[in-house]
Amino acid sequence: MNVPNKLTLSRFALTVAFLAVLFIEFNYYVTVALFLFGAASLTDYFDGKIARRDKLITNFGILMDPLADKILVCSAFIAFVGLGWMPAWMVVIIVARELAITGLRLLAASKNVVLAAEGFGKHKTISQITAILAILVFHSYQDWGALGTTVFGFNLLGKPWVDWFMPLSIWVAVCLTFISGGLYLWRNRQLYLQDL
User: Fold this and answer.
1) Do 37 and 63 contact (CB within 8 A), yes or no?
2) Average confidence score pLDDT of the chain
3) What pLDDT does residue 116 have?
4) Is the pLDDT of residue 36 over 90?
5) What is d(CA 14, CA 8) in angstroms, rounded to the nearest whole number?
6) pLDDT: is 66 or 170 the higher one?
7) Which domains does the chain have, with CATH numbers?
């Protein structure tokens, strides 16, 4: 098994560890979850970069890499609903979009059509990861003592700046997820409309 595929598989393991840590409360558990999610996100960056650089693109990687990404991101958002950190309706939009696009890609594959990722989709992924990191930082930075308070707790308009950034990042992620999903479904509508 090549390095990119090992990194993809490690993302599944890191997702399980991330979820376990979030629901087993101990000192600094959110900080540990933050590091685990950050590490998983880095594997997503490096597995693609290494695969393209070293020409190690495999069918396994083509299938499992986006699946690992979706499981990581959707698991995090669903966990946040369980913890009361995020409204359920926002997470429904995110998860529904990921399922719809996955279904569209499967339909396309059954017709021997490959649907490439679009720029909007990449921005969506970055916004989702940013929102997840912001939520985790918001719930953990006060445990970091003076460093956390200095970096994330300084006031902006009467509140720590992270108090403004966290909800803003969530709204951006939800909006980009909805818009990118709608555009993707519209641009590829011939794939499913011809079967109606």
Assistant:
1) no
2) 89
3) 67
4) yes
5) 10
6) 170
7) 3-191 (1.20.120.1760)
